[in-house]
Amino acid sequence: DFQNHIYSHSSQTNKFQCNLCPYNCKSFSKLKRHMLYHQGQRNYECPKCNNKFYQMEHLKRHLTSIHKLNIPQIGRGNRLFSSDMLKR
After folding, report:
1. What confidence tens digit (pLDDT) does each residue in 25-79 have?
2. 23 and 6: one domain?
3. Residue 84: how many CB atoms within 10 A of its CB?
4. Which residues contact 9 (CB under 8 A, 6 or more apart)?
5. How many domains does the chain have?
């Protein structure tokens, strides 16, 4: 659950703390990625249903689980192409 997830990120060795929620991490780059969630920046759009995600990994998981696509063959910037989509 969410509380366990937050707890897993609350180790004393984590030195970067989100100022909007209890999330903390070991690297500044991970904190920057986390902040995209709070800022509502969802730059990765599903080409099948137009849902948007703030991390490429979340889009890949969505395409694999919801649309049953083999992901990825080619990824370029904010675009993601699967082998199924390339056959058009």
Report:
1. 999 999 998 998 899 989 999 999 999 998 888 999 999 999 998 865 545 554 5
2. yes
3. 15
4. 22, 23, 24, 25
5. 2
Q: Answer yes or no: do 23 and 53 share one domain.
A: no
Q: Say if residue 44 is exposed, middle or buried (CB neighbours under 10 Å; 0-12, 13-18, 19+).
A: buried
Concatenating the DSSP letter of every residue in 16-41 gives: EE-SSSS-EES-HHHHHHHHHHHHT-
| Residue-range definition of the domain harbouring residue 14 | 2-39
Q: E strands of the chain, at which residues? A: 16-17, 24-25, 44-45, 52-53, 74-76, 79-81
Helices (H) and strands (E) in the chain — how many of each? 4, 6
pTM for the whole structure: 0.55
CA dist 69 and 80 (Å) reads 11
